[in-house]
Amino acid sequence: MWKLRRKTVLIPLTPNHSSSISTSSSSNITANPLLRCKTHHNSLFYCNHVSMEFDSSNNPHLRIHDFCEMGLVEKALLAYKNLNTLPLLRTCNALLHGLVKARCFDSAWDVYRDMVARGFSPTVITYGILMQCCCVQGDLVNARKVFDEMLDRRIEPTVIIYTILIRMFCNEGQMEDAKGVVRMMKESGVNPNLYTYNTLIDGYCKVADVERVFALYRDMLWKGLRPNVVTFATLVDVLCKLGDLKAAKNCFAFMPKFGVVPNTYAYNSLIDGYCKVGNLDEAMNLRVEMERCGIFPDVFTFNILIKGLSDSGRLEEAEDLMQKMDTVGVLSNCVTYNIIIYGYSKKGHMKKAMEVCSQMTGTKIEPNVITFSTLIDGFCKLGDVKAAMGLYTEMVIKGLVLDVVTYTSLIDGHCKDGNMKEAFRLHKEMLSVGLKPSVFTVSCLIDGLFKDGRTSDAIKLFLEKTGSSFKIDSSFCSLNNVMYTILIQGLCKDGQIFKASKFFKDMRCNGIKPDMLVYVTMLQSHFLSKHMLDVMMLHADILKMGVMRNTSICRVLSRGYRENRYFRSANFCSKHLREYCRVFYTRKVQVVTP
Questions:
Q1: Which residues fall in a coiled-coil region (predicted)?
Q2: What's the predicted TM-score (pTM) here?
Q3: Looking at domain 1-155, does it have CATH number 2.60.40?
């Protein structure tokens, strides 16, 4: 946990300080009311302290303030540099606030350094602005230093400054440190306000600690703080993400009791929850309810509904809903089109997917990397590698940078097409541009080598890519179930059961649980080779791992034992199979019967 350092800290503010900037898109700010409220809250922090300090006389200090208010920060900076007299502290604070608001972070830190160099002692207002700057930049390290320096100067942080620091810890998922700051502020006699509670609730929601979320909610009610729309929207969102729609609906219905009107974000969370469980009728009803209450759906609302329809295979309805967006004044975006393109590509309807892509460009929306990756993957899955490579060429011409997903789709397509030379060329290309192949990329290459009859090369590639040999290249990737399954299947098909057994043991030693496919493949190979002792050892392992109830495994064991005249073992497996089927169908009848 972070502890305060009481020694004097001079913040290392370098010209390239903004290298750690982590900004959010305007669409994300619009979608999250918590961010909107926090931004407004921090603007009030400065305005309430500074605006009253200026008199109305026409002087250069006031001009700097006016320039900042109008967003003309370049003119404000120029006026600051041209001052003939020592600037006032309130002028510096006004300029700092304007620069942070305009996201001119380098200039803000330059002004702060100039203030310190001129002998100014920063005030609580100055530190509040600096903390907000660190928050917008996502610079938790420097925020800690600013906070420590503030305490060293015997300046008491306000509830807003504490909340900013808490928010930064919450954004990083460091909830213990956030708790430490809350404890510190209480010891200093500063009581958390509604914004502090909302920040903490949002932080615990991000780490899915629902118990703590509702403990905070009860605590704020006990202290007489009335939850606002941000509080309820956050609670509804986390409950929907956890799949507890009943609780989410109850929480949503509780809002009017506190005089809180649901906003678009709260409705979107609930609609998304119903879409994810396949209850599209209820999701659609919520959209109608929104409009009836005078809350207009935004692009996120429509995208959620379109995705729900697309995932359910109702692509025509999804397209109709997209067309309806224009009639209600909501413009579809790249995400909207990508959802429908993905839906058609997943079903193998590539002609329709390309038509939607053409509509997309017709509305002046340029396809992005996700659009091309989706189309390339769709064509590769249909075996149309030529069309996929055509899209690849178009991406290169447009200057779009291919990602790992795009390369993996193309490599998989060429491997299935038997063109290993082109597959490895693409693999080499992705390495040259600094992309690290994923587990699936390597798995495609290994599978392709096995199908091409190059078993030794497949094993060699597996060892190189997983670090299981002395030769480890820069594209090292971690072991997983998929890679082992492909390797073991390939070796068994090639008749190399002993090598397959070796890798099976390695798989278990590395803590990777074999799936049903691995067990079935190994059993079939051992039965075929009459390795009955190995079969029995594998059977014991299956019982130990608790996968005996799988019907495929039971059938393979029962048939294999019977063919090899191990009738007692065959009867044992048949009994397991019958018992499993009886339990399965009993449960199915209980579910179906009202």
A1: none
A2: 0.73
A3: no
